[in-house]
Design goal:
Length: 450
């Protein structure tokens, strides 16, 4: 897929990848073997009929291809851009065994971006049963869309002033355009009859108990994500110039700090160190680079263990990001004004595999060294915010604070279902959508017909 050149794109926040033309999309679609038993479909958490939509695209029928995808996914333009396809559908594609898998994600993106078709608007009885969804991220949107299609009256309560969850506050504009892509796909969910109540912090402005007991909702789905950042608890972490990736990215994305048209303050510094190796770390470091910083990743394992998507790592390298592997911070250093001036790190080596199956990093004694920098961004993972647990009667969570739920999404509280990052901890868009869809089916089974 064509891309903006690295030396150009580090000066702007426009999308890096430019998308296929119709000719390119049909050419790529023509590589699909239309397998009788497609290995790609079971690897997709929402089970899109992949050969079905690719066949229609090959024939040039983009609208019909969209209708096939829309049966399973309400966010094709989003997923086509950010899903880790290499581990999912494309990882299963038969052509990948000896050569290159079909670029299923790029084709899905093309269909999402170019179709003018819309999903059919479902019929709804005036006295349809009401379902409340908490959180307008991928899990909540997928659950809402499926329930609306089944004829329920669905209301989504969202704490922020915009729908999309991490899609609007976390993933940067240069990977996922907000107006052109996220807002358009949220509008498609709205057209199904889903109502959105924004700036509603459930647990503060209204509780789950009130939704069920006095607001007339027959069931509640919790898709509240995992938005609480983790820190390292090392000395100096409270100095000026240390940020969580969440705060840094929220300022840049949701609050448009990168644009001259907005007054949101943001500080990337001259030299920025981002601690972590996942997608969040890559997004933070590439954002800092675009804001003018000389930016580097510090990661305690080796390149092989980097959890970020291979494409994001490649893009980061092309953009001049430094990678300090097998390195772990032990202290943030500051001046007498309380500002960051550096970070003390220690070299690591890999020991025995831990419970995640990856070899665990072990400090090399006496190998400490100092990296000069004026900002440090912690991208070490997130956990769910405890607010919902604290304000909902009888809702069990595990030791990480994640809501305990069955594979179908049922929680310990009758009538309350949950899915996505709120249950699994930080994961992926498509896993959250799959959980939202499963919970929608379970909710329909629990409350009966609309
Ligand atoms: P979220 O997207 O977190 O949405 C939860 C929503 O609930 C939010 O809008 C929040 O405001 C709202 N909410 C929370 N509490 C309340 C409350 N009390 N009342 C009302 N509303 C509430 N995944 C990928 O597949 N590919 C990627 O490339 C990728 N990159 C990522 C980059 C970043 C920077 C981050 C942070 C994550 C990334 N992920 C990626 C992970 C992915 O975005 C998440 O797994 C996914 O968004 C989870 O969806 P969700 O609906 O469970 O939660
Ligand atoms: Fe096409 Fe690959 Fe799926 Fe077969 S496995 S149907 S070739 S995308």
């Amino acid at each position: 897929m064509p891309e903006q050149a690295p030396e150009e794109r580090i000066k702007n926040f426009k999308e890096v990848t430019l998308g296929y033309s119709l000719e390119q999309a049909r050419l790529e679609a023509s590589r699909c073997l239309d397998c009788k038993k497609p290995r790609c479909v079971p690897r997709c958490p929402v089970e899109i009929d992949i050969p079905g939509f690719i066949r229609l695209l090959r024939e040039g029928d983009v609208d019909e291809a969209y209708r096939v995808i829309a049966l399973s996914s309400s966010l094709p333009s989003v997923c086509g851009r950010v899903c880790p396809q290499e581990n999912q559908c494309e990882g299963g594609c038969i052509l990948g065994i000896k050569g290159e898998s079909v670029a299923i994600g790029n084709l899905e993106r093309f269909v999402g971006d170019h179709a003018s078709a819309q999903a059919d608007i479902p019929e709804r009885k005036p006295d349809a049963k009401k379902v409340a969804i908490v959180g307008a991220g991928p899990a909540g949107l997928a659950c809402a869309a499926d329930l609306a299609k089944l004829g329920y009256a669905v209301t989504v309560f969202e704490a922020l002033h915009k729908e999309g969850g991490v899609l609007v506050y976390g993933i940067p504009e240069f990977r996922l355009p907000k107006e052109g892509v996220v807002a358009r796909e949220v509008d498609a969910v709205r057209r199904l009859g889903v109502e959105f109540c924004l700036d509603e912090v459930v647990g503060r402005t209204v509780t789950v108990d009130e939704l069920l007991d006095s607001r007339g909702f027959s069931a509640v789905f919790l898709g509240t994500g995992a938005g609480l950042p983790r820190f390292m608890n090392i000395p100096g972490e409270n100095l000026n110039g240390v940020f969580s990736a969440n705060e840094f990215l929220t300022r840049a994305n949701l609050m448009h700090a990168y644009s001259d048209r907005y007054a949101t303050p943001i500080y990337a510094g001259r030299k920025c160190v981002v601690v972590g190796g996942g997608n969040v770390a890559m997004d933070a470091v590439r954002t800092a680079r675009r804001l003018g910083a000389d930016a580097s990743i510090v990661y305690r394992r080796s390149e092989q263990e980097l959890p970020a998507r291979a494409e994001e790592v490649r893009h980061a390298r092309e953009e001049g990001i430094g990678f300090m592997m097998l390195t772990n911070p032990v202290r943030v250093i500051g001046n007498d004004k309380g500002e960051v001036t550096g970070i003390e790190c220690i070299s690591m080596e890999l020991g025995e595999p831990d419970e995640s199956g990856r070899r665990s990093p072990v400090p090399v004694e006496g190998s400490n060294f100092i990296v000069n920098c004026d900002t440090v961004i912690m991208a070490l993972g997130t956990t769910p915010n405890p607010l919902i647990k604290q304000t909902t009667d009888g809702l069990d969570t595990d030791r990480r604070g994640c809501i305990t739920a069955s594979p179908e999404g049922a929680t310990s509280r009758p009538g309350v279902f949950a899915g996505g990052d709120a249950v699994t901890g930080a994961a992926t868009v498509i896993l959250a959508m799959g959980a939202g869809r499963k919970a929608a089916a379970a909710i329909a089974g629990y409350i009966g017909g609309a």
